[in-house]
Design brief:
The chain has seven helices and four strands; from the N terminus they run ααβββααβααα. With about 170 residues, the protein is an alpha+beta fold. The protein has a single domain, classed as VSR Endonuclease (Endonuclease, Chain A, 3-Layer(aba) Sandwich). A hairpin with a 4-residue loop joins β2 and β3. The two termini are about 30 Å apart. The model has no long low-confidence stretch (mean pLDDT about 80).
């Protein structure tokens, strides 16, 4: 049994964002600070990758651990109610992700998935992994790299601005 009414649950679920999430904003900020330029959510690509790096012919998906069922992650738990619904939902999400990755790879794109828990736990390690993956041995430099706490605050501020800005996309 749900603790909220159907109306309240619907309202709560409608506020879950698919774009401009805090982990996604963090990854974008880290890449930008490192001098890596990118585009966002190119609709013509399978799965609408969160970050598209045309220069490197690479795409990055920033996945939420719960919705995409990150194996071994505590956040990827299953809700206690409507278990069959949620298991089917998660299974479909994972299958769709794999289909999209295969289609992107067939088109010649390199695909990387960054998990929400990794970004919030150690953003600098995520950045190092991304730069290594992109550079193939090439070294990138970043003049100023703020602390993890400072990065999280910047992402939170950007998220609040996106939610309050009249011209921002709420989808």
């Amino acid at each position: 049994m749900d603790i909220w009414s159907k109306t309240k649950r619907s309202d709560v679920m409608s506020r879950i964002r698919s774009r401009d999430t805090k982990p996604e904003l963090l990854v974008r900020s880290l890449l930008h600070r490192s001098g890596i330029r990118f585009s966002l959510c190119r609709k013509e690509l399978p799965g609408r990758p969160d970050i598209v790096l045309p220069k490197y012919h690479a795409v990055v998906f920033v996945h939420g651990c719960f919705w995409h069922q990150h194996k071994g992650c505590a956040v990827a738990s299953n809700p206690g109610t409507r278990k069959t619904f949620w298991q089917a939902k998660f299974k479909a999400n994972v299958a769709r992700d794999r289909r999209n990755w295969k289609q992107l790879e067939k088109q010649g794109w390199r695909v990387m998935v960054v998990w929400e828990c990794d970004v919030t736990r150690d953003p600098h390690a995520v950045l190092a992994g991304l730069l290594d993956w992109l550079g193939g041995g090439r070294k990138f430099s970043c003049d100023y790299m703020p602390s993890r706490i400072a990065l999280l605050k910047v992402a939170e501020q950007k998220l609040q601005w996106n939610l309050s800005h009249p011209f921002s996309s709420k989808t």
